[in-house]
Design a protein that fits this description.
This protein is an alpha+beta fold. The protein is built from 5 helices and 6 strands. The chain has a 3-stranded antiparallel sheet. The protein binds zinc ion (3 copies).
């Protein structure tokens, strides 16, 4: 689950892109808009569809180039939960993303709480790093896959 509203997340990520020294081009804006519309948890197929709805002039290849750049900047990160197709997760500024993946059926349960919350400031201070976001992936059997008894 993405924390914060769509518009705020969009503005935060746009600022991060601009601050990274990369140009804010139309394809980059549209891909970011698509990611926010999709609530920050989506496959490349869903992103391609949404981008196409928003601006049909943006090619498939440029969407993938933008996703590559965003991944490098940790604006999104790919996770490989359901198949070999990565699912992209948007990391809003100082954002948090946590989910539990079932090794039995690949069901993904999103967590709205952050187990790190109270420790983030300490981690940033200890390592001298300005944190911009994190993904936490937990693994465990869901109720339908749990062995009875
Ligand atoms: Zn998730
Ligand atoms: Zn399961
Ligand atoms: Zn967190």
């Amino acid at each position: 689950m993405m924390i914060g509203n769509k518009e705020e997340n969009y503005q935060h990520c746009l600022t991060r892109l601009a601050n990274s020294g990369n140009k804010v081009t139309a394809p980059r804006q549209v891909v970011l808009q698509a990611l926010c519309e999709l609530h920050g948890h989506c496959t490349s197929t869903e992103i391609l569809q949404k981008v196409n709805e928003l601006d049909a002039n943006i090619s498939r290849a440029s969407v993938f180039r933008v996703l590559e750049l965003f991944s490098r900047l940790a604006i999104v990160r790919p996770t490989y939960v359901n198949s070999s197709t990565p699912e992209y997760v948007l990391l809003p500024e100082n954002g948090h993303h946590a989910h539990i993946v079932c090794p039995g059926c690949s069901k993904v349960t999103e967590l709205s709480i952050c187990p790190f919350e109270s420790q983030l400031d300490q981690i940033a201070a200890d390592y001298g790093i300005q944190l911009t976001g994190h993904i936490l992936e937990l693994f465990g059997y869901c109720p339908s896959c749990s062995v009875a008894g």
